[in-house]
Amino acid sequence: MSVADVKKNSEQKMSKSIEQLKANLAKVRTGRAHTGILDQVMVDYYGSPTNLSQVANLTLIDARTIGVQPYEKKMLAAVEKAIREADLGLNPASHGELIRVPMPPLTEERRKEMVKLVKNEAEDAKIAVRNVRRDGNESLKKLVKDKVCSEDDERRGQDDIQKLTDKFVAEIDKLVGDKEKEVMTV
To answer: Which residue range(s) make up the domain with 69?
Structure first.
């Protein structure tokens, strides 16, 4: 393993942390409807818990309503029950073969709770990025100890990893700022 490998590995891991943050932020509810809210809903499909997107088609009917259409008619009641019991604060209503999931408007207090949740997700992502930096720096020290690279190379590598860390932390801050604005917009 070389200094370049350590830097490349660190950058890949930091990118994964950013992708995870984006996925987690997509699940945070804003005033508008989006199908990502229902990603965590598990439906009892013939005795085994199955992701909702595997048993139903999810669409946006309008800005505040999600449409859920099960692939099998007999799954209608199970899907509706799973959404209701998912503890998302949603109240689905079936209309024939379609289940309508209206998004209740967020209160100011609930919006502030959502912002706290977003900030917690951001802090978790920053911790993950800093852990990758620490692991990268330890790998560089091990390379010096094993006499694979010089101390100057190690120092340059640590500087590069610190620049990567700063870049990814700035990206996390930007993502969180955007999400906070989205949540607080009425």
So the answer is: 35-102
Compute the distance between CA of residue 94 and CA of residue 68 in angstroms, rounded to an integer: 9
CATH code, domain carrying 122: 1.10.132.20
DSSP 8-state assignment for residue 74: G
Q: What is the CATH number of the domain that holds 88?
A: 3.30.1360.40
Q: How confident is the model at residue 12 (pLDDT cuts 50, 70, 90)?
A: very high
What's the rounded Cα separation, in Å, for the pair 21 and 175?
9
> 49-54 long-range CB contacts below 8 Å, 24 or more apart?
52/79, 52/82, 52/83
Question: Residue 186: pLDDT above 70?
Answer: no
Number of structural domains, the chain? 2
Residue given tokens 């967020």 in the structure block: 106
Question: How far is CA 54 from each of CA 29, 41, 42, rounded to the nearest angstrom?
Answer: 21, 11, 10
84 and 45 in a common domain: yes
